[in-house]
Amino acid sequence: MDPDYELLAAVVAAGSLSAAGRALRISPAMVSKRIARLEARLGVRLIHRTTRKLALTTAGERFHADLLTILQSIREAESRLTGIRDTPRGPLRVSAPTSFGRLHVAPHLHRFLSACPDVELRLDLSDLNVDLIADRVDLAIRITADPPAGLEAHRLGGNRRILCASPTYLKRHGAPGNLGELAQHRLLAADGQLPWRLVNGRQQRLVDGRSHVQTNSSEMVRELAITGAGIALRSIWDVGDQLAAGELLPVLPGWEGPGDLGIFALHPKAASVPPAVCAFIDFLKHSIDPARWGPAGP
Predict the structure, then answer these.
(1) Are 112 and 283 in contact (CB under 8 A)?
(2) Which of 32, 66, 86 is the last residue of a domain?
(3) The domain that contains 10 carries what CATH number?
(4) What pLDDT, in 10s, does the model give residues 235-285?
(5) Is this model's pTM higher than 0.85 or not?
(6) How is the beta sheet containing 249-250 ordered, strand by strand?
(7) Which domain holds residue 200?
(8) CB 232 within 8 Å of CB 164
């Protein structure tokens, strides 16, 4: 759109060259010069000028009416484009830990899909820490104490972890009376989860050992603990329901995993974050219930 067209519309709306100049922060002389340039290019006089007022010529009235229609169409087109830009749409690839994704994302996912029907969602569940950039992941849910510096981190909740075992296991093997006795029990942990770092107030201890069953699955560890195979260190978000139902019981109360771990939604840093990513973060914050998992921490 020629800027002189918008100037003509502004002049007519303001009622004078000087008023239009003040509104546009240019001198009346420059306004007059640009209108004259427009008339010369079109080969027709558009405005009758006097020192105090202006009036459109017949040709100017017709041109002005057409011009207003065009400008309105442009504004409507820009509004539609802005709406498209701000509406969540297109591909969205999300990665989440297997158990967390199944327990705390999947049951609520229908609400996100209903609210954002134009998003093409792919949700990958894995206990591996994916490389968001290399694997082209738009958003990852990750349990960590130190989110990577190159990623934008949104804290979703804390990650309180306790030692627990089933009533069946404790009846059969007894409960350990102290941390030293843990070595005499069957410990359950997924690959890479041992040794356990435990705290009790200001006390800190490292508990090492070998998992009674070797597995790469945290979900397998939970099921083994529930069915009486041993003692596990589990997150409240993972076994809260089983603790409430009595299927699991706390072991060595007071000793827990450190409170430095948090649950985060991570995405690559960018000047403009895609609307679909923002919408999914908002969905997570409104869907999950971190109060059930213990203190969220700082």
Answers:
(1) yes
(2) 86
(3) 1.10.10.10
(4) 999 999 999 999 999 999 999 999 888 899 999 887 778 889 999 999 999
(5) no
(6) 187-188, 231-235, 161-165, 249-250
(7) 161-250
(8) yes
